[in-house]
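Hey team,

Filing this mostly as a record. A colleague (T.K.) asked me to run one chain through the structure pipeline before their review meeting, and I want the input and output archived in the tracker in case anyone asks later how it was produced. No errors, nothing strange. Just documentation.

Input sequence:
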Amino acid sequence: MNKRYSILSLAAVVAVAGVLFVSMYSNTQVTGSAQTVSNPTVGAASIANTAKDVTSVGGLVFGFPGATAIPLDQVATEQANGRTVHYITLVAQSVDLPIMGGGTYHAMTFNGTVPGPTMRVTQGDVIDVTLIVPSTETTGHSLDMHASQISAVPNFGPVMPGKTNEYAYIAETPGAFKYHCEGVGVLGMDQHVLSGMYGMTIVDPLNGYHKLMVVKTMTQNGQVVLNRQFFDPAAYEFTLQYNQLYLNSDGSYNQQYMFLHNTTQTVVNGMALGYDPVILHPWKGKGGQYEAAPIIVPVGQHIRLFVLNQGNMPVFFHIVGGVLDRVTQANMVQAQGSQTWNIGGSQDAIIDTVFYEPGAYVAVNHDYAAIFSGAASVFLAQNATAANPSDAVPPDSAVSNTSIHQNTFVHCLCTNDHAKQLGMQ
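Output structure:
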């Protein structure tokens, strides 16, 4: 694909970051103790026995009246009653994937990509999800979906190699929710999540999103007056998922680094500086799914960002040269006209903004260590639309007047097989 980018002052912004990043990267690749996860004999029988023991002493009772969990044999009934059902299959897959600076790391993935596939549903839809753990995996996995409101046991229980687990629920609350692996009975959860087993479920409000109001000023009869501008709810939409890597020199996970917050790289949608075309990535100019590319947006249009903190550190979300016109969190508008928004671990923010002039705008985690270790994503505003990286563009919403459809090209921290599947869609 022929990609032409009007970089403008972008080179000056990111060149310094690139030099500092390379220096930081080389300094953090030191030897540490690798964290491995054993394969404990945890099965359905032991979980059931534990539940019985707790219940017998008047403790937790699993299966709460009014909970949104759905017995699998009732999914068809919910569909017949008017609910849309989404059947999702996630396959645990451990692979080696490239990292900025060269080399690879031992990634754990859903479906061969980091993050896992973005799911998009409407409030009130049913999600029927199946986790498959192939017999080739050396450890068990599990699946915790934060968009659900169901008992963790037994729904999120461990799935050992060669086994599967399926459960269903109603997505009742709008937002951008995390899903992730919990390891085996939460053993190794940090390693599995920080090695790539996470993703996003977007639950759109049943009645759609509201218009965006931006208050600016204008001159009228020789005076400065307020001017309220309204933008249609339909928006160009993007996802940004933040996380950290804590690695030994051989690409294995280092839990001690995690405890010390000694970050090897900060990643956005799985890649450090993956949306920065100026930095000299090891695969720059070679094409393929790993080559860095900016996110291109039209000037003067409504932009909706689904920002999710998947990681171990806070995200101080800021757009260099821009203002966060509206911040929605926990299904409520929290701020208008904010410069930076703090997003804690396992929290999201839906951020609406408009870029009024052509140029380069860099979305960062305004923690300087995070910026220089990879959390800088370039938005290039121009007077025309263009195809965008596939891993930054969510599926279109089923709610009318929500998503402005975008063309994409294959871009992801993923296996070649997954990239080929994307290319055939």
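Quick notes for T.K.: Residues 10-28 form the longest helix (19 residues). Helices lie at 10-28, 44-56, 75-80, 152-155, 189-194, 255-260, 368-372, 416-424.
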